[in-house]
Amino acid sequence: MSTILDIQNLEKIYHSGDKPLTVLQGINFTLEAGDTCAIVGPSGSGKTTLLGLCAGLDRATSGSVILNNIKLDKLSEDERAQVRNQYVGFIFQNFQLIPTLTALENVMVPLELRGERNVHGQAMELLSRVGLAERHDHYPTQLSGGEQQRVSLARAFSNKPTILFADEPTGNLDEETGLRVEKLLFDLNREAGTTLVLVTHDLELAEKTDRIIRIKGGTVVSDEKVQVENRL
Ligand SMILES: Nc1ncnc2c1ncn2[C@@H]1O[C@H](COP(=O)(O)OP(=O)(O)OP(=O)(O)O)[C@@H](O)[C@H]1O
Ligand SMILES: [Mg+2]
């Protein structure tokens, strides 16, 4: 097994208010390639912030993020974008679809950035996997929250990520659609060996992963392997 993500003494302090706000401190963990992991914890505990740092979307105040043996700390914004483009898929808590592009075009963007062939066909295939082929020409505002969530999933898959970060991937979905999305995520893990890091408030979903990292007040309070009998 090789280490895909190595987090060392990570700290994040925001300076936007009148006094500095320490959101994460002393975070340490490593993930092996192909692992599945859930990050759980109360609202405001720093889960989304942590995911963004792990994925190279944002930079830590101190500490290190080593993704696929690449140390992200000293990289420029452009260099981090390249690393993300090459290895990372991200499903945002608030989807972050591009509002001026249709569902299909949103899914096509990462494929085009990678210079793939048959971008249109591949994007349609991904949209059908999430059950949205018929809505391909709709804009995000014309889609429900759950539908936008699924476009976001298709877009993250289109990057053929080595590691996929998903922030509350089933948070806006009804039970049936949620289970479908879960299956897509775990299939991707099984079939492509994609490492999965999920943030979730759903403990049933968390228990389907290999490992649960619990954070509270910006620090890891427990980090445990999930018992095999609970697994999918
Ligand atoms: N850009 C920012 N500037 C200042 N404070 C921020 C910023 N982003 C997040 N925070 C604060 O950092 C803390 C952690 O936020 P974060 O979004 O990581 O929490 P979370 O665990 O994902 O919560 P939830 O479960 O509600 O999504 C919160 O108190 C939040 O207000
Ligand atoms: Mg969050």
TrEMBL record:
Keyword Translocase: yes
Domain (ABC transporter) ranges: 5-232
Record keyword Translocase present: yes
Signal peptide (from-to): none
Pfam families tied to this protein: ABC_tran
Any one GO molecular function term: ATP binding
Keywords from the UniProt entry: ATP-binding, Nucleotide-binding, Translocase, Transport
Family: Belongs to the ABC transporter superfamily.
PANTHER family xref list: ABC TRANSPORTER ATP-BINDING PROTEIN MG467-RELATED, LIPOPROTEIN-RELEASING SYSTEM ATP-BINDING PROTEIN LOLD
Protein name as annotated: ABC transporter ATP-binding protein
Source organism per UniProt: Pontibacter locisalis
